[in-house]
Amino acid sequence: MTHRRRRLAATARTLSTVITTSALLAGAALAGAAPAGAVPGAVRIASGVAYRQFDLPAAKGTVHVHLLTVDLSDPRVHVDLLTPGAVAARSPVSAMADAAGAVAGVNGDFFDITETQHPGVAATGASVGPAIAHGRVLKAAVPTAQRFGPSLPPSADTTDVFGVGVDRRARLGRLTLSGTVRTPDATLALRGLNQYALAQGSVGAYTTSWGAASRKRATCGSDTDRAAGCSTDTYEVRIRAGRVVATSASPGSGPIAAGTTVLLGREAGADRLRALTKGERVSVRERVTASAGWIRYRFAVGGYPVLRGGEPPAGLNDTTSAVRTAVGYASGGRRLLLLALDGAVAYRSGLTIAEVAAEMRRLGAVDAFSLDGGGSTTMVARTAGAKTVSVLNHPTDSPERAVANGIGVFFGP
Hints:
This protein has four helices and 26 strands. The protein is globular. By secondary structure, it is mostly beta strands. The strands form six sheets. The protein has a seven-stranded antiparallel β-sheet with strand order 1-2-3-21-20-22-19.
């Protein structure tokens, strides 16, 4: 074969691959009917990023699985948190992925989705657990009794995270907040950072990362009951350039300027803040600390573990089936598995959490983590030659649900 013929043949093979890949992904993304069946083999999204779909028998009926495999040993591939631009905001996964330039992604943490228990209080849309994006801490975890989502296994709480360290290895861990508010006369413990719920009697800090949403929700609920009423004993202090510049007896709203910190207290925390006066010097220090290891997280998202060291933790739910999203890893944290179930009517019976753990183990995960599910479950990817992502599964919500955050897969230099 001549050089020109070899070149033409290679071009034809490339075009054929692009057309086949686009057709397979487009077929997965068509709205309305259930997917036609398993794609033979994996479809390449980018170097180190592959997608496939398949049917899986389950206790309540067959489900359809969408799976992204991500090779973090490829230096051009990385993952990070997808966000809507503020902690207290929501956006569809597809919109967040396109805005960030991701080639693929799934939805992330459970979040403050409704406030029917607190009439007149708006849901913030903020996530439950800690969040780190681009190595920067955005928020800490709400009290466990104030979380949204299914019941946790006994060993889990809201500080649990899945993340990737600056060493490019995935890991499970816990991230807890430690911080102080120092004044000339006293030192207060800081027990919240950009959270939709604060512990009773505590003080929390809000920064520009929070967004414009009202902070009223943070004073509602109790340490044992998310539906408990809102506190009437609250106080807020605004700090800029290390000094108190404003105070208020009620939680505020609206954007927080860069360089400004709002301290919000409830009950005993409110009493401590009332002692501060305009012009007084105040120093706020916050730090989110990992439960184990010294490697800093580049990104982290909340949820809860369903597999550790290849074994499910005790107490995983094995009776309630639902559409699910999960993430796991193998190869020492170098290979990620992102799983999203299809929400089409034919497959909506879903999996139990115990079944999710079993499937993640079958797929090769050593550790695995449950993310938000139900109407939030969404997987997106960019088809060959496309400039925007397509939704690969059929979310149970239509149109695509706006969520608090997600896991984005990125490819580039």
